[in-house]
Amino acid sequence: MNQTIYCDHAATTHLKEEVRDFMNQYEQDSYGNPSSLHPIGKKAKDLLIQARQICADCLQASPDELHFTSGGTESIHLALFGAIKANPKKKKIISSPIEHSAVYNTLKYLESKDYQIHWLKPNAEGQISSEELSEALDDNTALVTLMSANNEMGALQKVGEIAQICRTHEILFHTDAVQAAGKIPVDLSEAKVDLLSISGHKFYGPKGTGLLYKRKESKVARLSFGGNQEGGFRSGTENVLGWLGLAKALSLACSKLSQESQRLQEMQSVLMSALANLPAFVLNGPSKLEERLPGNLNYSIRGVSGDQAVLQMAFRGICVSSGSACSEGKIDPSRVILALNPSEPWRAGSSIRISLGALNHADQLDRILAALKSLVR
Ligand code: PLP
Question: For this structure, is 326 an active site residue?
């Protein structure tokens, strides 16, 4: 019996053994409430300081600019709602239609509540134009929110350039780096970002853990009131063990980043070259490897629906996904693929994502390719 091959690392990742061992090591010592004055509380507080310092070192940020959360969605909500709350007179937000639903649906909600959302159109490969962003900025703009890397078709945005434009215009910039962190370099001492969201389960850390970077000088209001944890920005008793796990996973990912991304790109390149010879497979997103997330492949397959393809791949023991995992179970075509190819709507209903990661090895590629080829036989 062939073993299952997991190619859905963009949906989520397993907890790495080193991360599990690290968490086990601290399980007994981390249960205290960091706000308690006694030694058990003090121990938990020290571990939390340690976790924050590890993350700060990985991201080149100051520890007091990092706020732990319950995941990417919460980080994004704190960023978006916090930014507009701090700037109540400004009613315009600039973003794009290819954002993850954690951003997209929040903006749709705000659009129904008096906010003007300026949706920047991506080009056919999923990139947002810096020139169009510059033209859209005005005095009424409260926030720009654009993702660092797309979760479906892997397009990387020019975050450094976008951040610089926003800083020059003194407009807050948030980037959803949930797919980027741990896979491509994220250096906050370089990028002029105000807010950045991260999620632990995308880089082999525990689920239900996240991080929000908020630059010290950025004007962003707090949303939650309570015990004033996380620098007063996110109240609630801290998930010390989970956040230690996130910190360990992030440091592991950052220390092996260039090695691992090269390994993933090599496999990605083998699959892309083989599929380029099959006319039924149409690549979505950037054609250049360096403009895609390492390990991400996304194809529309002529004559096959995305959901059908996912089920047939699963039947052959290969786990892939059609579009975003968060929309799995629904048969809506992918709005991301549609935004890239509005004149070819079939592509949005026939797309599959293969996201390679730590569980993949070169010797699995033949089986993955054979399964893909069988979809159009
Ligand atoms: N943003 C992106 C780009 C994502 O891929 C995801 C998860 O798939 C999220 C945000 C939401 O993160 P979380 O699942 O941690 O809430």
Answer: yes
